[in-house]
Design a protein that fits this description.
single chain; 228 residues; mainly beta; five-stranded mixed β-sheet; 17 strands; 13% helix; globular
Length: 228
Amino acid sequence: MSGRNFRLLPLVLFSALVLPGPAHAAALHADLLDAAGQLLADAVITLSGPLDGSQAPTSALMDQRDKQFQPHVLAVRTGTLVSFPNSDDIRHQVYSFSPAKRFELRLYQGTPSEPVLFDKPGLVVLGCNIHDWMLGYIYVTDDPWFAVSDENGRATIVGLPAGRYAVTLWHPGNPQLLPQSAGELQVQAQTLSQRFTLASSGPAEPPAPPAPSTFGEAFRKAAEDAAQ
């Protein structure tokens, strides 16, 4: 071993002993249930914990398919840019009057050139001026860890440092559409499974589009023409 390498060896050993290695991260598998004990799809769980989980601005999609918003519930962190592609072969006019984000995308097909910045936490309720049964939700949170439950009521959050977290739950069926506190959760460096019960009265399915009719199609076309 050369003299130079020999002199560097104590420094290398010191770094290996003293400097922290990669943090051990855990995963949470959460089953989200309504007040009657039934598993809930489209329920949001968020965690605030020992670290702020800061990250660069992210992007997300809220599509429109078969005259419905897809997904029905989207959760994003404050500062996220959301695009609103229209995958239908008809035009939509998306809007929200919610205090957390008021906006309108005039009658369009395809994808608007500019996404919408969701820069305040809170619930944003989406509608379409042309198809009034279309209803969607964007849940904007300051919490760094969050997930939306799938059709089986399961939500998974990965990359959690060990520590104590405050849990918040939300679902479209919650009273007054308000989030609810679910206490605290202690996370270790391992996979954790837990059930959470929401105040929701049950599944909140998006309203189904009405059956097509000659009058309805004529009214829809007139509404689209008037919105131009």
